[in-house]
Amino acid sequence: MMTIVFMELQKNQLNNIQLIVGLGNPGVKYHYNRHNLGFLLLDKYISIQNLKWSFSTKLNGDYVKANSHIYLKPHTYMNNSGSSVSKALSYFCLNPYELFVVHDDVDLPFGEVRVRFGSGAAGHNGVKDIFTHLGTQDFWRLRFGVGRSNHLNVPTDKHVLTDFTQNELDYISDIDFESYINKT
């Protein structure tokens, strides 16, 4: 069962969201990795909406403009996501508080979701890079729990590059990501 925690969340604040970014790594090799959760959720949503991604060299990523939002999947690899996000905010004349970043979180059990504004990176290098490029951590984040490895000898940086199990993928495919989008 999915647990959703909305911290410091007020409807009027979420109404400001314009840019929704899913974090992940480009390429088939990484498609079903835990670190690609942001990509997986956005891909599903865009598909359900019958929309198509377009690549932008200016943004260095795939993007879609629809339903009063801009959706972005950076092609910079996870740990360098900040440059693409920064370029998108600049190109579309947006402020960081209008940003909603969707990413994996090993510190949350699988399936737990937290939505927060202005929280720390908790060791997530993609989020750290966004902080560096934006000069602030004052933006919205949807953190989706992927848990830690059950094997003590698997370091976190290796665990997030492992593929989801089929049961986990089935669970993810049942997530109503649109309900999060409609809150924004």
Word description of this protein:
- The protein is α/β, with parallel strands linked by helices and 184 residues long.
- The protein has one domain: Peptidyl-tRNA hydrolase (Rossmann fold, 3-Layer(aba) Sandwich), CATH 3.40.50.1470.
- It is 30% helix and 22% strand.
- It has helices spanning 11-14, 37-48, 81-91, 125-134, 156-159, 166-173, 177-183, and strands at 4-6, 19-22, 54-56, 61-66, 69-74, 99-105, 113-117, 140-145.
- An 8-stranded mixed beta sheet has the order 1-7-8-6-2-5-4-3.
- α3 packs across α4 (125-134).
- Mean pLDDT is 89; it is low at 1-11.
Keywords:
184 residues, disordered N terminus, 7 helices, alpha/beta, Rossmann fold
